[in-house]
């Protein structure tokens, strides 16, 4: 499956960071196996008619006030959203963006109407009341963005040895957030170091 690393990252992250254990502990977002099928059906009808054979849901962020009618859905290949383009407007914007085109994604928490920033631009508003949940959402999405960004796109003019060092650093970041295990880090690091 395309971008299967994203599933591994999110599953590993929440295996280590879900205080509810087998019960989902968060109220405004759901990840991988914790995404409820009834919510997905509503989301598909409202704004994310994704290809169920090629795309699999990874992260579903619900607008706390609008529930299944507004939110953000990450699949392995696209990000879908239906959100208000300004806090005071009732009109919503529906968009589909390839995950590979995302270099920057952050939700700026505000008490009323958090701001979605995408690739450096304010694109929409979403209600996520918990600052803690916004922090978790931003952290996991930035891990996914980091995992998909080829080193060549970030620094195109570096030599092969420098690329290997950067890849090792990237692995270390993924490991620090629980996205890869000690064993995976050791094996991948060993393989990369053998190329130096």
What is this structure's SSE topology?
Blueprint: H1 5-17, E1 29-31, H2 37-46, E2 57-63, E3 67-75, E4 78-84, E5 92-98, E6 105-108, E7 114-118, E8 121-126, H3 131-148, H4 151-154, H5 160-176, H6 182-193
Antiparallel strand pairs: 1-2, 2-3, 3-4, 4-5, 6-7, 7-8
Nearest-angstrom radius of gyration? 17 Å
Largest sheet: 5 strands, antiparallel
Number of domains: 2
Total strand segments = 8
CATH topology name of the largest domain: PH-domain like
Secondary structure tally, helices:
6
Q: Helix and strand string, N-terminal first?
A: HEHEEEEEEEHHHH
Q: Which class best fits the helix and strand makeup? A: alpha+beta
- Please identify, by name, the CATH architecture of the largest domain: Roll
Overall outline:
globular
The share of residues in extended strands comes to 15-25%
Return the CATH class of the largest domain.
Mainly Beta
Distance from first to last alpha carbon: 30 Å
Strand line-up in the sheet with most strands:
1-2-3-4-5
Uncertain stretches: none
Kindly report the average pLDDT value.
Answer: 85
- What is the share of helical residues? 25-40%
Q: What is the gist of this entry?
A:
The protein is of the alpha+beta class. It contains six helices and eight strands.
Task: Give structural attributes.
196 residues, alpha+beta, PH-domain like, 2 domains, five-stranded antiparallel β-sheet, three-stranded antiparallel β-sheet, 6 helices, globular
Explain what you see.
The protein is built from 6 helices and 8 strands, in the order αβαβββββββαααα. It is of the alpha+beta class and 196 residues long. Helix 1 packs antiparallel against helix 3 and helix 5 runs antiparallel to helix 6. It is globular.
């Amino acid at each position: 499956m395309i971008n299967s690393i994203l599933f591994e990252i999110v599953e590993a992250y929440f295996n280590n960071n879900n205080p509810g254990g087998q019960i989902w502990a968060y109220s405004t977002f759901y990840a991988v196996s914790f995404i409820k099928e009834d919510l997905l059906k509503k989301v598909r009808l409202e704004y994310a008619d994704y290809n169920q054979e090629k795309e699999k849901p990874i992260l579903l962020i619900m607008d706390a006030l609008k529930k299944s009618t507004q939110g953000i859905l990450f699949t392995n290949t696209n990000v879908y959203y239906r959100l208000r383009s300004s806090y005071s407007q009732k009109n919503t914007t529906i968009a589909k963006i390839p995950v590979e085109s995302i270099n920057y994604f952050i939700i700026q928490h505000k008490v009323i109407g958090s701001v979605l920033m995408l690739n450096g631009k304010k694109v929409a508003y979403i209600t996520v009341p918990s600052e803690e949940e916004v922090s978790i959402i931003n952290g996991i999405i930035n891990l996914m963005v980091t995992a998909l960004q080829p080193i060549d796109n970030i620094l195109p003019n570096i030599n092969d040895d420098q690329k290997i060092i950067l890849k090792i650093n990237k692995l270390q970041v993924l490991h620090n957030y629980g996205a890869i295990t000690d064993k995976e880090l050791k094996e991948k690091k060993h393989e990369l170091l053998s190329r130096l």
